[in-house]
TrEMBL record:
Lineage, uppermost ranks: Bacteria, Bacillati, Bacillota, Bacilli, Bacillales
GO molecular function terms listed in the Swiss-Prot or TrEMBL record: glucosamine 6-phosphate N-acetyltransferase activity
Highest rank taxon of the organism: Bacteria
UniProt xrefs under Pfam families: Acetyltransf_10 (PF13673)
Name this protein carries in UniProt: GCN5-related N-acetyltransferase
Domain N-acetyltransferase residue range list: 6-148
């Protein structure tokens, strides 16, 4: 498995294609949720992903402060279905948070989590800051992490 952390302008067309394919497969096809996956935030984001045999198997979008929220945030967190429950998601989140520290020296990170994943994110220190609400027909909750 090979890890990559790249600004949008450093991605090749093939890398971007594989990233968008993985995101559409999980968030649109697998979750049966038609929504605008391409939202205009990718050019200002940093893209952290793992590849295996040329395929994106884990991905997170790291967004600087002011792009989605006042705080920096992590979004589009995914692990390919057959690799879930292997620890890859934990590695992805740890790498995401460490990369954000290196890039922006963050003290706080905000996420919009699917409610079922709340315990997963809580294991990294994220705490809910909103009630559960529907986003594209899926229950979500806003969560915040503060550096201790």
């Amino acid at each position: 498995m090979e890890w990559h952390c790249k600004a949008f302008q450093d991605l090749s067309a093939a890398e971007l294609y594989r990233i968008l394919d993985a995101r559409v497969q999980v968030f649109v096809v697998e979750q049966n949720c038609p929504y605008p996956e391409i939202d205009g935030k990718d050019p200002e984001s940093v893209h952290l992903y793992a590849t295996e045999n040329g395929e994106v198997v884990a991905y997170a979008r790291l967004l600087p402060a002011g792009l989605s929220y006042t705080e920096p945030s992590i979004g589009r967190v995914l692990v390919k279905e057959e690799l879930r429950k292997t620890g890859l998601g934990k590695t992805l989140m740890n790498r995401s948070m460490a990369s954000m520290q290196e890039l922006w020296e963050v003290d706080v990170i905000k996420i919009q989590a699917q409610d079922y994943a709340r315990p997963f994110y809580a294991s990294f220190g994220f705490e809910p800051i909103s009630d559960v609400y529907p986003e594209d027909g899926i229950p979500h909750v806003d969560m915040l992490w503060h550096r201790q």
